Amino acid sequence: DLSRPTSTDTTNTASAVSTTGIIGAASTSIVEKTITRDEVCEFLMETDGDSESERITPDKIEEAKSVIPSLIDYMQNREDGFCASLAMDVLGRAKDKRAFEPILAELYKVQGSQRISPIQALGNLGDPRALAPLISELQRDRTPHDQIGYVVAGALGGIKDARAVDPLIKLLQNDKDPSARYEAATSLGKIKDRRAIEPLIVAFQTDSNDNVRDYAAEALGEMQDPRAVDTLVAALPQERADSGRFGFIMRALGKQKDQYSKNAMIAAYKMLKDPSAKSHLYAIMKDAGIAPVDK
User: Fold this and answer.
1) pLDDT tens-digit profile of 47-62?
2) What is the pTM of this model?
3) Closest among 146, 135, 102, 140 to 121, alpha carbons compared
4) Which distant-in-sequence residues (6+ apart) come within 8 Å of 23 by Cβ?
5) Which residue from 48, 150, 219, 238 could staple onto 189, CB 3.0 to 4.6 Å apart?
């Protein structure tokens, strides 16, 4: 049982420690307690009884904030490799900065694909101290499909620090792995730095991979910049209304606040003949708060 002790609960007062201002704005005070390693693994493995359900739920992450030191201890000792991996995942998502150095140490202990879990955990943690070690991962020798570029790009997007923009642009422009390029585009959209606009436009217009072009469109939609809007609007007539890219472009335009983008979406809607495509676009416009003249 990991229920947090209250001020009147005397069952765990010997090991309970109050921490303030560490966990984040949503919770200013967490009452901690120590649990055994067996209890850590049991807690991490627990589901709601459905074998297909997720082990790491938002509720579990909140509950885990009361046992951060015990999770760190388990991750470092690795009594069970799978439970240690779950502990690392939870520590990253719990966003407690005390986990930064232990997770970084785990990254330096392993090689190859085993580096993926600590890289993802550092990205979820969101600590800017992870920028330098994550960027250094991109300088390592990598195979085209080892997924390291992809997970590092995602981690940098999780931290959302402008210092990651140049490495992400380089990844978008040069990496041989399409998944690394489209994740770089997504992360640039999350950071929203204007330096990324022109590289994203080039990727949207010229990349050889459809997924990269689609996610570049999505990232351009996050920028709220006239250059991005002009590029997206100009591309609309070139795309089939039932194509995935048409949907990406329309959703990107739907995030804009200017009337020009809204008018472009309405004009595209009016031109559609296919009822299925029209219904799909109607749903996109409705989500964007734009009311077409008819369905």
Assistant:
1) 766 555 578 899 999 9
2) 0.84
3) 102
4) 30, 65, 94, 95, 96
5) 219
